[in-house]
Amino acid sequence: MNLQQLGQVRHDWETAEVQALFDMPFNDLLFHAQTVHRQNFDPNEVQVSTLLSIKTGACPEDCKYCPQSGHYTTDLDKEKLMKVEKVLEQARKAKEIGSTRFCMGAAWRSPTKKDMPYVIQMIQGVKEMGMETCMTLGMLDEDQSQELAEAGLDYYNHNLDTSPEFYGNIITTRTYADRLNTIDNVRKAGMKVCSGGILGMGETELDRAGMLIQLANMPQQPESVPINMLVRVEGTPFAENEELDPIDFIRTIAVARIMMPESHVRLSAGREEMTDEMQALAFFAGANSIFYGEKLLTTANPRAENDQKLFERLGINPERRCEKHSEEAQEAALMNAVESQQQDKMFYDASV
Ligand code: SF4
């Protein structure tokens, strides 16, 4: 590829040049990714979000990686839609421990008419606390997208998961086009897009390239790009999948950083299984967003204490996006995180 173009936001990525990025010697790739990262971000800042499952399990979709799918038998405790006040209580706690964005996820094919008023109250309540809001509720039509945007929703998460070619091996109950359509509706309604995928599902490097091309070549690149590492949950069809090579994971982060220079690249599911060294390398490769808190939807997430220690060891500061949250307050909040997390075992109580 033409290295002169490094760091430019482009929407015309082709397979051969993305493949060339994947084929680069690891150190060269990381050097370029870090260079691009520094052109757009403070390299020592990581954005911190908290994710709460507001409705857990019994999902009608058949995503083969997902313990929330009603198609598979897993140990997951199913929960109905959480009460609004309970969600807001968790959002307050997330703010106290330094999160600037509160993400709420529901295991739905798409929200029903009956659910929307509750979801809207949740958005409005979290916004009033001065936090950014994000939701992942499944597919959205134009009207639903508009309603959520009007309620104040900042981000909508809807992952592409993988390449269009590999997609049929993972999900049969919704199409790739359905996914792109939802993302399109979200954009039209004026919300920011959070969209990425999962590595370790049996896809090839070409599939990883294909997924990143889909994301980067959107008319507007997603503001947030979660790169997940498959969590092999017992009972799901992917439980026995081969372990992902950590170097391949880091390589994909670096390629994502180069292709989407202005997006936040997020370490999401699978972080629990990553060593500190692997996370450090991921930050060097251009990842600059994590989920913070005890659980990431339904799989374990490294405890706040570990995150806090790792940030300190690496000299990383949480990105300050929330105007109402002063630097000192945020620092103090993070320092207190260990204590508050230890005292409060209720952080991820998804009871109704
Ligand atoms: S990934 Fe989402 S849509 Fe797919 S089964 Fe899980 S909760 Fe449902």
Automatic annotation (TrEMBL):
Belongs to the radical SAM superfamily. Biotin synthase family. The keyword DNA repair does not apply. One of its GO terms (molecular function) is 4 iron, 4 sulfur cluster binding. It catalyses: (4R,5S)-dethiobiotin + (sulfur carrier)-SH + 2 reduced [2Fe-2S]-[ferredoxin] + 2 S-adenosyl-L-methionine = (sulfur carrier)-H + biotin + 2 5'-deoxyadenosine + 2 L-methionine + 2 oxidized [2Fe-2S]-[ferredoxin]. The lineage of its organism: Bacteria, Pseudomonadati, Pseudomonadota, Gammaproteobacteria, Oceanospirillales. This is Biotin synthase. It comes from Litoribrevibacter albus. PROSITE patterns: RADICAL_SAM. Keywords: 2Fe-2S, 4Fe-4S, Biotin biosynthesis, Iron, Iron-sulfur, Metal-binding, S-adenosyl-L-methionine, Transferase.
